[in-house]
Amino acid sequence: MDFKESKAIYLQIADRICDEILLGAYSADERVPSVREYAAVVEVNANTVMRSYDFLQSKQIIYNKRGIGYFVTAGADKLIVALRHKEFLQEESAYFFKQLYSLGITDDQLVSMYNEYKQTQKGIHP
Predict the structure, then answer these.
(1) Which residues 6+ apart lie within 8 Å of 35 measured at CB?
(2) What is the DSSP secondary-structure string of 98-111?
(3) CA distance 101 to 83
(4) Fewer Cβ in 10 A, N or C end of the chain?
């Protein structure tokens, strides 16, 4: 896995697991790979993956069955979307709007671009 310098590796791994949940790789109450298995997949130290799992557990996206492993929480997909929605509105939108303003992108241009984007996504996403 290629990692960005701008975000902690354990958070990038957590994002990847969330993406996999949203894409249906793991469903509710399904076991996710062990810490060691996932560490081998993403080619990082098992302690880093453990930190990702701890983070996801703190957000109630996965839960631990002692001695068995980690499992996806029922409703995790909805929770992930809600958390990402909140994060976007609180953290990323300010930068996004600053860029729109500084580049002189008009409301009409933005609406047009967004509508074009939505058209390209039809049939790809539910």
Answers:
(1) 46, 49, 50, 53
(2) HHHHHHT--HHHHH
(3) 26
(4) C
Enter the tokens of residue 117.
């984007």
The C-alpha atoms of residue 14 and residue 42 are separated, in whole angstroms, by 11
Farthest-apart Cα atoms in the chain, separation: 56
Mean pLDDT of 41-60: 98
Q: What is the pLDDT of residues 59-112, one digit of tens each?
A: 999 999 999 999 999 999 999 999 999 998 988 898 899 999 999 999 999 999
* Structural domains of the chain, ranges and CATH numbers in brackets: 9-76 (1.10.10.10)
The residue among 106, 34, 96 whose CA lies nearest residue 71 is: 34
- Orientation angle between helical segments 9-22 and 35-42, nearest 10 degrees: 100
